[in-house]
Write a structure and sequence with these properties.
Largest sheet: 8 strands, parallel
Pfam families: Bactofilin (PF04519)
Protein name: Polymer-forming cytoskeletal protein
Structural class: mainly beta
Distance between the termini: 13 Å
Order of helices and strands: EEEEEEEEEEEEEEHEE
Oligomer: single chain
Family: Belongs to the bactofilin family.
Number of domains: 1
InterPro entries: BacA/B (IPR007607)
Helix content: under 10%
């Protein structure tokens, strides 16, 4: 199952499916079968699967099965032997130097994150619905995303 869109919330997320979009949460675990195509911003990120985008977190853990095709910005970093990273590691989280408007914060491109399509995440008349993405052993994430016209 593939979910298209952005997930934002003060929650813990375990991703064992595929998300094409950006993810902002408190704690993110990408399981061995999980794939994130987009950026991730969290307090704690633990990657066992694949990320094709940038990661920004206070603590980043990359297991031996992890593949990251993007940059990793962190305070604390743990990389197991066998983890694959094609990008740069940067220690230290950027502090905002100027005030930014709320509209700029909502715009993924203004934050330097990937947006998978030009379609709005929540089109008019198509409100968000709760979904669960998992690898077959029960729900792994629960979040509100829009129904996609595919």
């Amino acid at each position: 199952m593939t979910v298209l869109g952005e997930i934002v919330g003060e929650c813990d997320v375990s991703l064992d499916g595929r998300l094409e979009g950006n993810l902002r949460c408190r704690k993110l675990v990408i399981g061995p079968s999980g794939e994130l195509i987009g950026g991730a911003i969290a307090q704690n990120v633990h990657v066992k699967g694949t990320v094709k985008g940038d990661i920004q977190a206070v603590q980043v853990t990359l297991d031996s099965t992890a593949t990251v095709l993007g940059n990793v910005r962190h305070e604390v970093l743990s990389v197991a032997a066998g983890a694959r990273v094609e990008g740069h590691y940067t220690q230290g989280l950027a502090k905002p130097e100027r005030k930014v408007s709320v509209d700029a914060i909502r715009d993924p491109q203004a934050r330097g994150l990937h947006r998978p399509s030009s379609k709005p995440v929540f089109p008019a008349g198509n409100p968000p619905v709760p979904v669960a993405v998992g690898g077959g052993s029960g729900a792994k994430i629960a979040a509100s995303v829009a129904k996609a016209d595919i």
